[in-house]
Specification:
Glycogen debranching enzyme; 6hp_glycosidase-like_sf; GDE_N_bis; globular; MGH1-like_GH; 686 residues; alpha+beta; 19 helices; Beta-galactosidase, Chain A, domain 5
């Protein structure tokens, strides 16, 4: 069963991926099942009636946390003769609950044997991702009169799935069953409750999860309604903008994740199915995208990342003092240090981006208290940039993993093994320095200088940071400029040799402000030129480069998040038309994905495909893809905090029509922004 045929519901770190009948039949390599805290708690969940599997009539996507399946016994040829209807309605929210309803449409009574096969392999999500299910502990099944307890034990690590029912059932080690007699037109109902437990020493439950009974489901519904009510309203003549915005807002709600250490506050998890956890880079960039709409996510993200900031040297976790984490996991492989994500620090961009977000958050909200609260963590992050990130000693941020077994080789956002290369396609040695991270470091120092001068009472430190940023900008523009191609190299190798390929990373350089103004026009031309721009968006790698592949993960696909920051960068340097072209392409693409942009899609030319081609294993929903339409809205409307007020300078794509964004929150209270695009005169003439 491929991912494209699956149905997904989620609530933060807990999610279910199943077939269109509601059944779960997991294999070691497919992310199907009930997952929570990076562990699969149900790997089999198969419903039969009188020994017969069921077929799907339809499926209702009720909310991100609940769904409904309409089923009948037998094969498709039997649909018109079906005398039974089976409805499975399920919700997830810390645990899992399924309401089962069976209706008899016959004139005769029926006797039914209803059975649910249930099992759990307690696979770690990393084991599923790597297609290696190598369990070292013991599984157990305990049958009790009123419940079935499935468990896994390895030392102090224990996980349990406890299944019970609102009506009397017969439990055995492989599931449970009901014997039901239905009169004509009678219906039978039961509620099945699946509790997931993460047990620590002494049997203490480590989870503070929501339990999905009637009241909790209502609480989730109310929470979603409140989330939407608190966010700005978007109306548009072009319906795709408003509908894509609403889809993004709901997906953001779904991806909110409350780490065990956070006491209920939430930050955005990265993406379903593989990355439903805390990521430094992804969470920060998502917060930057969504700041004008959901600023509360930024405050939580900054606080939790600060609390888990690196404090020592740990080669296994690639940890240094002051470094912001890359990824946090809660499964078995992290618990037993079979992989380092407890947490893992192998990213070089999260630390400068942490400073960028803190400054941007204050500019929007005026939350001076948080800036003062995080002063020491901010200073530690700046020390990391200067003291620990410069592995070569020439003033740039470099990376080379110290954990050579399970650490990440590429620690930039393009973190696949072959994403960094020379123009001939060969891969450079380590350490490596990618261009966009130098831009982030420049931006971080400029912004931290403002914080030091205005809020930390340290003007000397501010002067020093501004001087260092200016020196970095001058040095960067000398060392990274590819003169014959008129763009910036993707990376440098330790000898200073350029990875002289044209990539989307140049757009991040515009966003950071490190680009010399006289060179910006060349970059803008590249970004909307035919080698990088497909018509749907900017490719990660330009057509014609040796490693270019329209469905290469970081070597030619289009990433919506990437495009949103590129558009923001273009606006920063005054290229509003080019930013609008990119926004238009991405928002057009969103309509082909029902408003939910995937992690990445193919870089094929628009005239070749007529629709965007989804990348085969793209996460969906994915946080920074969900945030992309929100940042594009900000970019098109030219929303920028300015001296305590919100400046609005709209530049919409041709034919976009009128857009209004109402109740934009910030230090100014709540304000509205309006914009109207120019008419498409060519289409008007037609």
């Amino acid at each position: 069963m491929g991912q494209s045929n699956t149905i997904r519901i989620l609530d933060g770190n807990t999610f279910v991926v199943c077939e269109d009948t509601g059944d779960i039949e997991a294999t070691p390599s497919e992310p199907t099942g009930l997952f929570s805290l990076d562990t699969r708690f149900l790997s089999t969940w198969v419903l039969t009636v009188n020994g017969e599997r069921l077929n799907s009539l339809s499926f209702d996507d009720l909310q991100y946390f609940e769904s409904r399946f309409f089923l009948v016994p037998g094969m498709a040829t039997h649909y018109v003769d079906a005398k039974l209807s089976i409805i499975r309605e399920r919700a997830v929210g810390g645990s899992f609950r399924e309401q089962l309803t069976i209706l008899n449409h016959d004139e005769k009574p029926v006797d039914l044997e209803i059975r649910m096969e249930a099992a759990s392999d307690f696979a770690d999500l990393f084991q599923v991702k790597d297609e290696i299910l190598n369990k070292k502990g013991e599984n157990y099944a305990e049958v009790e009169p009123d419940k079935l307890r499935l468990g896994y034990r390895r030392g102090n690590f224990r996980r349990e799935t406890v299944i019970s029912s609102s009506t009397e059932a017969r439990y055995d080690s492989r599931g449970f069953a009901y014997t039901v007699h239905l009169e004509p037109n009678e219906q039978w109902d039961t509620a099945i409750d699946v509790q997931t437990h993460a047990l620590g020493p002494g049997g203490r439950d480590l989870r503070m999860g929501v339990r999905v009974h009637g009241t909790e489901r209502l609480a989730l519904q109310h929470d979603l309604e409140q989330w939407i009510a608190d966010a700005p309203k978007v109306n548009s003549e072009h319906g795709r903008v408003a509908s894509t915005y609403r889809r993004s807002l709901i997906d953001l709600a779904a991806l909110r994740f409350s780490p065990l250490s956070l006491g209920g506050a939430s930050l955005p998890a990265a993406g379903l199915p593989w990355f439903m956890t805390m990521f430094g880079r992804d969470s920060i960039l998502t917060c930057l995208q969504t700041l004008p709409f959901t600023p509360q996510l930024s405050k939580t993200t900054l606080r939790i990342l600060a609390s888990l900031q690196g404090s020592r040297f740990d080669d296994f976790r690639d940890e240094d003092p002051g470094r912001i984490l890359h990824e946090m996991r809660y499964g078995e492989t992290a618990a037993f240090e079979e992989q380092p994500h407890s947490p893992y620090y192998g990213s070089v961009d999260a630390t400068p981006l942490f400073l960028v977000l803190l400054d941007e958050y204050e500019r929007w909200t005026g939350d001076v208290a948080l800036v003062k609260e995080l002063e020491q963590e901010s200073r530690a992050a700046l020390r990391w940039i200067d003291n620990y990130a410069d592995l070569v000693g020439n003033g740039y941020i470099w990376y080379e993993r110290r954990n050579t077994e399970t650490g990440l080789e590429n620690q930039c956002w393009k973190d696949s093994w072959d994403s960094i290369s020379y123009s001939d396609g060969t891969l450079p040695p380590f350490p490596r320095a990618t261009c966009e991270v130098q831009g982030y470091a420049y931006d971080a120092k400029v912004r931290a200088a403002r914080l030091a001068r205005e809020f930390w009472g340290d003007p000397e430190f501010a002067d020093r940071l501004e001087r260092e940023a200016a020196e970095l900008k001058e040095r960067f523009n000398r060392d990274w400029w590819v003169a014959d191609g008129e763009f910036y190299a993707l990376a440098l190798d330790p000898d200073g040799r350029q990875c002289d390929i044209l990539s989307s990373n140049i757009g991040h350089l515009l966003w950071s402000g490190i680009v010399e103004p006289e060179r910006a026009e060349k970059l803008a031309a590249h970004l909307v030129g035919p080698r990088l721009f497909s018509g749907w968006g900017v490719r990660t790698l330009a057509e014609g480069e040796t490693r270019y592949n329209p469905i290469g993960y970081h070597n030619g696909t289009i990433w919506p998040f990437d495009n949103s920051f590129i558009a923001w960068g273009l606006r920063r340097y005054g290229f509003a038309e080019e930013a609008a072209i990119i926004a238009n392409g991405i928002l057009d693409a969103a309509t082909y994905f029902d408003g939910r942009l995937p992690e990445a899609f193919g870089g094929y030319p628009r005239e070749l495909t007529k629709f965007p081609v989804e990348y085969p294993t793209a996460c969906s929903p994915q946080a920074w893809s969900t945030g992309a339409p929100l940042l594009l809205l900000r970019t098109m409307l030219g929303l920028e905090p300015h001296e305590g007020h919100l400046a609005v300078e709209p530049r919409l794509p041709v034919g976009m029509g009128r857009i209004e964004v109402l109740d934009i929150p910030g230090r100014w209270g709540r304000v509205d922004a309006f914009a109207r695009g120019r008419m498409d005169l060519d289409n008007l003439a037609d």
